[in-house]
Each structure stands twice: as structure tokens, then as C-alpha cells.
Amino acid sequence: xxxxxxxxxxxxxxxxxxxxxxxxxxxxxxxxxxxIPEYVGSQACLGCHTDHFTHWSETGHANDLVQLIRAKDFxxxxxxxxxELQAELQKAQWLAFGERxxxxxxxxxxxxxxxxxxxxxxxxxxxxxxxxxxDARCASCHSTAWDASQSAWSEPGVGCEACHGPGRxxxxxxxxxxxxxxxxxxxxxxxxxxxxxxxxxxxxxxxARSTAPVIRNENHEPDPNGVPYRDSCFECHSSDGFVAKxxxxxxxxxxxxxxxQPVGCAACHDPHGxxxxxxxxxxxxxxxxxxxxxxxxxxxxxxxxxRVGHHLQAEFLWGRGAAGGIKPTEGPHSQVxxxxxxxxxxxxSTKIAVPTQVxxxxxxxxxxxxxxxxxxxxxxxxxxxxxxxxTMIDAAKKDIAVIEQAVAANPNxxxxxxxxxxxxxxxxxxxxxxxxxxxxxNFEYAMKILNSVxxxxxxxxxxxxx
Length: 466
Hints:
This protein is of the alpha+beta class. 38% of the residues lie in helices and 7% in strands. The strands form 3 sheets. Strands 1-2-3-4-5 form a 5-stranded antiparallel sheet, with helices on one face. A two-stranded antiparallel sheet has the order 6-7. It has a two-stranded antiparallel sheet with strand order 8-9. β3 and β4 (111-119) form a beta hairpin.
């Protein structure tokens, strides 16, 4: 028979506060352990973590399972439902996910779905094909510390301890951080946000491997067994550094090593909630631009000498930032938000859903907007853009190799004006390569830049007779 393994909330809050303050410190460990269960419930966190608790209490996690005790606990007036659905609602004991209704089976004691659900968009109760077992199918993710052998949870819904682990020792240790789990490891989220039904595909994204390029060996080469290369890199290559950057806090990847986590769920989503849609720390576009922009102001350009930088996608998409006076050029995608193409249907792989390569019936990144087109024609456009861009990049690299070989043999070969032309061409080529869309972000701008690069390299080769 189901047991809800929480002791009264008021007692837990009181014990949490008292122990955090050190009151009762003379009690023996055995006595304290007898008084407090391993999982103490989210209410016990309220005393010390008031802000987090307050935000969390408004999230879907906190309200995954709501016990139906009073009429106002229901999402709508029961009397407004058809008679056959009213009969189902009269049985309801829990509201799941804000729309489904559960009641314990008198035969098995399991929570079962009833034949009614709430249609929030329509504001009415509608029929639902119930009868499935919530305990067997859903309870492990939609409750805290689910014990299948006992058909028992410590807390309905996704509470603090679902992610942070049992809180008793943390409380007994007066807030000892070593006694609680608190990090940016996305495996915590992937306990539930995975698989065909709830999966996000984050695991196959470049974000999931973002720390790899910035963990180096003694030769500064990428090495998973190395150490952090440069702290500033981790502001965009790790969840820990990224969140610190958003908060305006100092961050040391070296001090945090080896706990630096790749850019995962909690980098963009605040697990405790903050009132934003989808619990995002900022708007989706702001989050992308925090890293995928070089911060070049309107009218500015990339440096001609020195490090051009990377993560220049925003500037290239907007059609500005090239060196040498190339005219800014807004393309057809310049005003399209990143996630419109890179997260179709909530896919966190952030890969383009290429037309003709998606599963049958799935949405691709192009025809969701280009509704008057076909997947085959959009794929043809994409192939043409990227093939043309790639061919011109390869040709430019060959010209650069010829010139650099000549300069290596004669370091004074280029005069000041020729060196400026050469360096401008190289910087602009790097700009296009670091955009990494092979022209797809803004093909017209790519062609303007590459035509300029080609002309400049031809000019230099003619000047030096190569």
C-alpha cells in the first residue's frame, strides 16, 4: 500500500532551521537520524534557500503532481463537464502534469489514469483513454525518490531531492555542501529527459563536447586528461563558466578542475525556475548570442592582424563585420532567431534538420517557413550555397599557401600596402570559416566577401609574380 514518506512539513522546516543554526548540536547522530528521514522533503529547504524554493514552487516540476482535496484544486469547475466525465472526476485523487487525473485502484492500490483530462487551450474537460498504470510508467520521473518495491515516493512531483539527492546529512551537517549534490552535470536531467518520449538529443550536440577543445595537455593540445587551457574559454565552453558569466561573477576553470561540465541543460535552463518561459536564464536569443557573437558593434569590423576570433555566427548572419570596407548585407535569414533553424521541434542537438534527411512526418529547418517549397528544392539550395562557398574557400587557401611560401623565402617580399591587402584577405577568409555555416547563414554576404578575398589574393600574386 502506498505510503507518502514525508513527516509533517512544519516539523521538517523547523528541524531544518534549527539544525542549520546549530541548535540541537549535542544530540547524538543516531538520535538525529532517527528523527529525520533520509529524504526530508522540499519544505526543509525553504528556511535557508528561500529564493530558490519560491521560484521552484511555481515550476512544472513542483506541480507535476497536485493532490486534489478541494474543489479549487481542480483546473476547472467539475459541474461544467459532461455527466460521464463528472463521474470520473469524482474519483480523482491527483492531478498530473496539469491535465491528467489519477486515482488509486481499489484492487491493486496502484495509481491509474482516469478517462478524463483537462484541455487547457479549450478550457474544458474532455475524454481521455485512461486505464494505464502511473506507478509503473511515470512515477519514477514524476515523483521524488520513487521506490517501486514499496510503490512509495518521498514527495509527489519533482522536488529538491530529485536532483540534489537526499537532504538529511546536508541538514545534519549544518549546510555541509559535501553532503548534497550540486553541480552542472546534465546526467541529473538525463535521468528523465531522455529517450523517444522526453529526449532532447543534447547528448549528440557540440555543446555536450564543449569542454574537449579547452582541456589541454602540456603541449596545449586537446586532451581529455589534461587541464584547463585558459579560464576565459570556459565562459562559453562550460556550464559552470557560462552561468558565472551571466551572473557577472569571477570564474576560475583551474580552481574548478576537474569538475568543469560541458554546456548542458543547466547552462541555459535554471533548474529552480525564474519566471521565464521554459525556465530559461535569459531569452533564447540572448543565450545564443552570449557566445555565438564576437560583439562587433554596428559599423565595426574584425581585426586585420592578430586573432580574428571565433563564434562569429551572429555577425555573419546579420551581414556585417568583414574587414576592408565590404558593404554590410542583410540576408533572408538575418532576422530569423537561432532556435528557429537550430532547434526545430525542441531538438537540442542544435543541428540543422536538413530537408530530405529528417524522419517521415518530422519538421525540417527549411519548409517550416518556406511552405511554398519542397524539401528537395530547399536541400538543393543548401547544397549549392555550401558547395559554392567551399569551392571558393579551397581556392583562396591555395592562393594563400603560394603567397606564404614566397614570403617565407623572402620575408621582405611584400611592401606595406601589399601586406595590408594580403592580411585583409586572410582575416576575411577566417571570418567565413569561423561562421561554420559554409555560407548558409548569409549566402549573398559570403559571396561578397569571397569575391573580395579572391580579387585581393589575385592582386598580391600578380604583384609578386606568382
